TrEMBL record:
<keyword id="KW-0808">Transferase</keyword>
<feature type="binding site">
    <location>
        <position position="182"/>
    </location>
    <ligand>
        <name>FMN</name>
    </ligand>
</feature>
<protein>
    <recommendedName>
        <fullName>Flavin prenyltransferase PAD1, mitochondrial</fullName>
        <ecNumber>2.5.1.129</ecNumber>
    </recommendedName>
</protein>
<feature type="binding site">
    <location>
        <begin position="147"/>
        <end position="150"/>
    </location>
    <ligand>
        <name>FMN</name>
    </ligand>
</feature>
<feature type="binding site">
    <location>
        <position position="96"/>
    </location>
    <ligand>
        <name>FMN</name>
    </ligand>
</feature>
<dbReference type="Pfam" id="PF02441">
    <property type="entry name" value="Flavoprotein"/>
</dbReference>
<feature type="binding site">
    <location>
        <position position="228"/>
    </location>
    <ligand>
        <name>dimethylallyl phosphate</name>
    </ligand>
</feature>
<feature type="binding site">
    <location>
        <position position="212"/>
    </location>
    <ligand>
        <name>dimethylallyl phosphate</name>
    </ligand>
</feature>
<comment type="function">
    <text>Flavin prenyltransferase that catalyzes the synthesis of the prenylated FMN cofactor (prenyl-FMN) for the ferulic acid decarboxylase FDC1. The prenyltransferase is metal-independent and links a dimethylallyl moiety from dimethylallyl monophosphate (DMAP) to the flavin N5 and C6 atoms of FMN.</text>
</comment>
<comment type="subunit">
    <text>Oligomer.</text>
</comment>
<keyword id="KW-0637">Prenyltransferase</keyword>
<keyword id="KW-0288">FMN</keyword>
<dbReference type="InterPro" id="IPR036551">
    <property type="entry name" value="Flavin_trans-like"/>
</dbReference>
<dbReference type="InterPro" id="IPR004507">
    <property type="entry name" value="UbiX-like"/>
</dbReference>
<keyword id="KW-0496">Mitochondrion</keyword>
<dbReference type="InterPro" id="IPR003382">
    <property type="entry name" value="Flavoprotein"/>
</dbReference>
<feature type="domain" description="Flavoprotein">
    <location>
        <begin position="62"/>
        <end position="230"/>
    </location>
</feature>
Amino acid sequence: MWTCRSCIRLARQSTRFAPTSQTQNFSSHTSSPLLTKTNHFASNYGHLASRNLTTSSDSRPKRIVVGVTGATGTVYAIRMLEILREVGIETHLVMSKWALATMKYETDRSWDEVQALATKSYALRDMAAPSSSGSFLHDGMIIVPCSMKTLAAVRAGYCDDLISRSADVCLKERRRLVLAVRETPLSAIHLDNMAFLERAGATIFPPVPAFYTRPKSVQDLIDQSVGRMLDCFGIHLDNFERWESFRKA
Ligand SMILES: Cc1cc2nc3c(=O)[nH]c(=O)nc-3n(C[C@H](O)[C@H](O)[C@H](O)COP(=O)(O)O)c2cc1C
């Protein structure tokens, strides 16, 4: 069972602040010393004054957009969806055509099984899906694994599918975008695209394994990388090994 400190923190916050701080009734300001300003506000924004305004950031669930492309390593995406489901974080999944082909070749999972791990899933060509717009609020996007083709599309701002469009939206809205890029060796074009996107605000996260944890299996390596990817979103799992110092023999 995974536990997640930020989920517990979010739950505490929503209990602490609801309902008073989420609701501001602007019509109650009429007796303040700022009478003139308030009258101006009321006459120009009367439609707002008559409503109770709330902020969705306090009440909506934490949600992550997960894009999966046709680089080797769809196992990382599957594990990420499993963990996010277990810790109760909403996921919005988009898979490319080549991600499906790679997943079929590299794993025993079917599209239906993987789709069932996500809260919602969308077709790659569905440019009307929520994450296509900046007004759809979420806590960031990861493309895992991220092919060099999609990396190049994101770098160029070439939004011809839902994955590249959603990533483009993340950058323009200054939201967290993590690119689990996978290729080896890397050409000057790949490196240049990565350096450019890092400067544009993305986190470049090649799933390079760490061996200081003394992994016993491939699953250990996957869990370690996925745990570190989730750290990028402020989702800190307690159940994977973190470096503290050299262990005493
Ligand atoms: C089995 C397999 C493994 C692949 N591995 C990689 C890879 O590690 N990195 C990469 O950039 N492309 C890889 N490719 C090529 C991409 O699938 C291809 O460039 C594709 O057009 C990517 O499209 P997408 O980004 O829309 O998924 C692989 C293809 C196959 C069939």
